[in-house]
Amino acid sequence: MKQLTIKDIAERAGVTKATVSMVINDYKRIPQATKDRIRKIMEELDFHPNESARVLAKGRTEAIAFIATRYAAPFISNVLDSLEQRAFYANRYVQGVVPYSTRNEQEVKELFLKKILTGKKADAVIMLTVKPSEETAAHYKKAGIPLVLIENRMKDAHSIIIDNFYGAEKAAAHFIKTGRKNAGLIVGEAIQPPSRDINMPAIDRRAGFISGLKKHGLELPEKNIEVIHAYNYEDGKRSLDNFLKKGAGLDAVFCAAGDMVAMGLLERANELGIRIPDDLAVIGFDDVLAARHLNPPLTTVRQPLDEIGIMAFDMAIDAIDGKLKTFKHIKIEPDLIIRKSA
After folding, report:
1. pLDDT tens for the 342 residues of the chain, in order
2. Spatial distance between the Cα atoms of 279 and 273, rounded to a whole number of angstroms
3. Using N-to-C axis directions, what is the helix angle for 164-177 and 200-214, rounded to 10°?
4. β-strand 335-337 against 299-302: which pairing, if any?
5. Torsion-angle region of residue 94: left (phi > 0), alpha (psi -120 to 50) or beta?
6. Interatomic CA distance for residues 82 and 68, integer angstroms
């Protein structure tokens, strides 16, 4: 069976091949009635344009790369999900949001970025909690491939950041307002090995919590700090055990490392007969969907996860379409959602 071509569609429609090509690529100058007629013929003949030829004609890859340290973390998976949802509703890059996991290794990240750039594998790159070297960012700028950073900011890139310092200060203020005097902190690594990216959210949340306590004359002793690595359920359980072994005598814990860690801590507290919030108040960070359904429901610093993904996608599209003449930067102020755990 002969494979249909643009020429066949053009002959059937009584137009030029160039007109059919422009309809396929959705050129605005083609009248809508002409578009509808040609698309109907394409549908009747079950014609599907050659994707590689179409990409070459448009100078686009029809892909947006999404680079993160891993996919399992609720924060990352929620942002990726909202990106994909936005692509669907915008009818742009519907099947073209391509995820890459670096496992938090700079060498892997830079390898991905090099392959994407030299292989022209994406029209834009969205990066969550990781960022390129300044040299790589400059290469992307020269190539006209926009970079959108989430939770980082640098020159030659657009950015969306959460005010993590402010969010952590609000958590500290709430503990003090509710009479807590000896709070603990569970936080990610602030100082990373040379092979990994600097964890700016962890740095800012730690600094913000300390600042919030100091404003009310309280300190944060080292024994009241647990640094975690995997940001998972087990980290929360281990952290509570470690606080108890050290004899920290806590009456509150801020899980700056996220709600998943807070969930693990709550389960371990229940196993040990520690009453929440009577014996120990707990605040998380993120406000994932499950947080409101826990027993007790989790007080947490809310990041607008869905909105972050939507904003990142829209920013990437605007940059691809040439609507952003300068680099755009958005700073989001998080909310403290008060529930029964604190």
Report:
1. 467 788 888 888 898 888 887 887 777 778 888 888 998 998 888 887 665 455 545 556 788 999 998 776 778 888 989 998 898 888 888 878 899 988 878 889 999 999 998 888 899 999 998 889 999 999 999 999 999 999 999 989 999 999 999 999 999 999 999 999 999 999 998 766 666 777 889 999 999 999 999 999 999 999 999 999 888 899 999 999 999 999 999 999 999 999 999 999 999 999 999 999 999 999 999 998 899 999 999 999 999 888 999 999 999 999 999 999 899 999 999 999 999 999
2. 10
3. 30
4. antiparallel
5. alpha
6. 15
Task: Tell me the Ramachandran region of residue 229: left when phi exceeds 0, alpha when psi lies from -120 to 50, beta otherwise.
Answer: alpha
* CB distance 91 to 319 below 8 Å: no
Whose CA is closest to 154, among 169, 166, 136?
136
Q: Which residues contact 233 (CB under 8 A, 6 or more apart)?
A: 260, 261, 263, 264, 267
Sheet holding 281-286, edge to edge: 225-228, 183-188, 252-255, 281-286, 299-302, 335-337
Q: What does residue 102 show for φ and ψ, rounded to 5 degrees?
A: -90, -10
Please state the pTM of the whole predicted model. Answer: 0.79
Q: Which residues contact 10 (CB under 8 A, 6 or more apart)?
A: 16, 17, 19, 20
CA distance to 118, 181, 228, per residue, from 195 (Å): 23, 38, 18
Task: Give CA–CA dist 105/89, Å, rounded.
Answer: 33
Half-sphere exposure of 149 (CA within 13 A, CB side): 22
Domain architecture of the chain: domains with CATH: 6-58 (1.10.260.40), 64-162+306-333 (3.40.50.2300), 164-303 (3.40.50.2300)
